[in-house]
Amino acid sequence: MACEWFRAVCGTRAWLLCSLLAVVAAGGTILEPHEGSHLWTALDTTLHPDLILALRKEAIVVRDAQAGQLKFGKLSTNWYPTVDGKPGSPFPKPRFAAEQAIHYLRELDFPGNSFAERKIVGAEWWFQLRDTTENIGFHYDKDEGVASIEMRMSYPAMSTITYLSDTGSPTLIFNQTTPDGNSNVPLLPEVAALFYPQMSKHVTFAGNLMHGVVGELGKTHPGHEPSGVRGTFLVNWWTTTPRPPNTRVPPKNVVASLIKQSQDVVGVPRGTATPATMHSFESFGHDTSQSVVVVLPPADRLHVALPKRIDPTLSSLNFRFDWPAEQVSGGGAVLDLNNEQMVRFIFQSHKPKVLVFHRDATDLDRWELPILKALRPRIGEIHLYFADIALASDAMQAFGVSQHNLPTVCIHDTSVEAKYKLRPGTAFSEHAVRNFVNEFFRGVLDDWDGTPDNREEL
Known about the structure:
The protein has twelve helices and 21 strands. The chain is an alpha+beta fold. It has an eight-stranded mixed beta sheet. It has a seven-stranded mixed beta sheet with strand order 14-15-17-19-18-20-21.
């Protein structure tokens, strides 16, 4: 049953739009087991310095020739197919640095006959040039054309990153995937890898894994340069051809510019690739870690323990995390009724919605982590939202909540359209929230009768 208070808040037209958009995605594949040793690898100094320099220059050419924004604000990527697009066939002769690098990365990523065995039909490639402390939101690599048009997930066989700089924020990869883009499996990550940029380092990981760049950790990089640029060359290997226009064969004028820029590096030696060291972050001690908040799609806020500082004497800046339960908390989101994806997700799910209404960011900082920890055993059974009065005053009114009672907690069981409120006079705490939710599941709460706390204050 549709969530009536969202319909009241958003309006009938928006509710109908969200209902039409509530398409359950299909076709996602979950890789098992989700163990770190099976999910990612890293190699040091994989490409010749001249080729790295040429890639840095090509990144500027490609950026300046970037196609305009596509559906949902996406930008286009480039496609380099095998000969005749046949699975496992060789690539055409390289014409510029990016294509030469793809030839060499194929040798590294698919030893022996595995390229043919995996039935790879081509490489999707693009560049990223970012400030050294810039975030790249957490996401899944996917066929953006399929996702935009068919609303389902189609993943590359393998995702890769080749770093073009010695500075910048690290890439964080979780052992999470999603079958439909609406929920993550597992709900909270248990294993992760953190890779800091190092020139010519090459990272590969399973193509359906959650990953992003944690901007605030850029300052912990031993080679941090505030005015520097974080450069990466991204190559995803595919067993199907990604849908245009999101992924396209580069236009002739772009190819001509790239050939003019870097044809002289075609054929340079590959470079020596050596397995990179992965450090276990557990051995570094709690005094070197900090709690960092990252936002995972669709909008979940995740608190994880990440480095506070990095030993500058380490030669390899790669870390593996096996988090105990107390170092990972998540499963809650900040309620935003202007977020179409969030509203769509709320309409799709019949799990009870637990709403923590609060005043401002100070309240959120005070209560979010304790409540996430208190409700951790229930995270898979509920949808938890933190609702700031500035963003959720209409929702507060729908529950008859007044400002003087904040913070407080309410539950909306959309499966039967029943609402519940924390009993008047109950002191708000993480323990009160946990008990309130547990009482809901025991079926001992009384429905809210519709009487507001104090209508004059709404």
